[in-house]
C-alpha cells in the first residue's frame, strides 16, 4: 500500500519537474532570441520598400525637406501640416538607429535631392541594454553627414538633439554626452546645424515635463510635437521659407534694374562697333 502511495506522489512530482525544466528552457530560448534580435537590429527593408511604393503612386517634389529618423518622427502624423508652407517629406521608420539610417540614406534621403534633411536618431541607440556608447553614436552621426554631403554637398543637414524621456531617464546621462559631441561636431561643418529640442522639455525647476509624453513615457505626444514645431520651424523658415525666396527674387530684380546694368553692354569686339546697326555713330 505504501509503495502505491509513494508511486502516486512521485509521478506528479516528476511531471512537475519536467514541466519546470521545459519552461526554463523556453524562457532561456526566448531570452536568447530577444538578445540576438537586439544585437542584430531589426530588418527595415519592408518599411523602406513601403516608402518607395508610396513614391511611385505619389512622387514627392524634388528639393523638399526630408525628416528622417526613428519613431519620434514616424509617429508625428501632423508633421507635414505643421511645417507648411515648407514642403516636407516624413521618412521616419519605427525604432531605427543611426546605423539603420546610414544603411538606407541613399533610398530615403539622397533619392529626393532635398534642400535640407532634419534628423532624429540616437534615442534607440542608447536604450537600456545597448552596447553602443555616446562616442559610437556621435561617430555614426558623422558618417551620416559625410555620406549625404558626398552625394549632395549643397544640402543642409539639421541634427536634432536626443530627447530625454521618462521611460529612458536612466540613459539620459549617456544621451546628454552624445548630444554634446554631436553639437561640437556640427559646429565644425559647413551646412550642418544642431537643433536643441531637449532643453525646453524641462521646466523652470529643471524637472522633465511629464505632460510631453504619450502613455508609454517614451514617445512625444501632441503637446511635445507642438513644442518641437516651435523650435524647428523658425530655423527652417529663416532659410527656406517663402519670405526668403521672395527676398532673393527681389534682390535679383533690383540688381537688373541698377543703372550700371541698364547701360548698353558691349559684347562684340571693338572693330564691330562701326557696323551700320551699331548704337554708336
Written description of the protein model:
The protein is α/β, with parallel strands linked by helices and 281 residues long. It is 51% helix and 9% strand. The protein contains 10 helices and 5 strands. The chain has helices spanning 2-40, 45-57, 71-74, 79-82, 98-108, 134-151, 172-186, 222-240, 242-257, 259-262; strands spanning 65-69, 88-92, 116-120, 156-160, 192-195. It has a 5-stranded parallel β-sheet. Helix 5 runs parallel beside helix 6 (134-151), helix 6 (134-151) packs parallel to helix 7 and helix 8 (222-240) runs parallel beside helix 9 (242-257). It is globular. Mean pLDDT is 82; it is low at 4-9, 12-40 and 258-281.
Task: Based on the model shown, name its key terms.
single chain; 281 residues; alpha/beta; five-stranded parallel sheet; disordered C terminus
The percentage of residues in β strands lies in: 5-15%
Neighbour order of strands in the largest sheet: 2-1-3-4-5
Radius of gyration: 29 Å
How many helices? The count is 10
Count of distinct strands? 5
Termini, distance in Å? 139 Å
Helix fraction by DSSP (H/I, runs of at least 4): 40-55%
Mean pLDDT: 82
Main sheet attributes: strand count, strand direction, barrel closure:
5 strands, parallel
Structural class: alpha/beta
Outline, from the CA principal axes? Answer: globular
Amino acid at each position: 500500500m505504501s509503495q502505491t502511495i509513494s508511486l502516486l506522489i512521485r509521478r506528479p512530482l516528476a511531471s512537475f519537474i519536467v514541466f519546470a525544466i521545459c519552461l526554463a528552457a523556453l524562457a532561456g530560448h526566448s531570452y536568447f532570441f530577444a538578445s540576438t534580435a537586439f544585437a542584430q537590429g531589426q530588418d527595415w527593408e519592408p518599411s523602406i520598400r513601403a516608402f518607395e511604393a508610396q513614391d511611385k503612386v505619389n512622387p514627392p517634389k524634388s528639393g523638399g525637406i526630408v525628416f528622417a529618423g526613428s519613431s519620434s518622427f514616424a509617429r508625428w502624423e501632423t508633421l507635414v501640416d505643421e511645417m507648411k508652407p515648407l514642403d516636407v517629406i516624413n521618412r521616419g521608420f519605427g525604432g531605427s538607429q543611426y546605423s539603420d539610417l546610414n544603411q538606407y540614406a541613399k533610398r530615403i534621403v539622397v533619392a529626393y535631392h532635398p534642400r535640407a534633411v532634419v534628423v532624429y536618431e540616437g534615442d534607440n541607440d542608447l536604450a537600456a541594454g545597448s552596447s553602443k556608447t555616446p562616442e559610437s553614436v556621435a561617430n555614426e552621426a558623422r558618417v551620416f553627414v559625410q555620406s549625404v554631403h558626398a552625394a549632395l554637398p549643397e544640402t543642409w543637414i539639421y541634427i536634432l538633439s536626443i530627447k530625454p524621456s521618462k521611460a529612458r531617464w536612466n540613459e539620459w546621462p549617456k544621451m546628454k554626452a552624445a548630444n554634446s559631441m554631436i553639437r561640437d561636431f556640427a559646429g565644425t561643418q559647413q551646412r550642418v546645424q544642431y537643433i536643441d529640442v531637449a532643453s525646453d522639455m524641462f521646466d523652470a525647476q529643471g524637472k522633465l515635463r511629464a505632460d510631453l509624453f504619450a502613455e508609454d513615457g517614451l514617445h512625444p505626444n501632441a503637446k511635445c510635437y507642438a513644442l518641437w514645431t516651435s523650435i524647428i520651424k523658425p530655423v527652417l523658415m529663416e532659410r527656406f521659407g517663402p519670405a526668403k525666396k521672395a527676398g532673393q527674387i527681389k534682390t535679383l530684380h533690383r540688381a537688373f534694374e541698377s543703372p550700371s546694368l541698364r547701360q548698353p553692354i558691349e559684347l562684340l569686339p571693338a572693330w564691330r562697333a562701326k557696323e551700320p546697326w551699331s548704337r554708336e555713330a
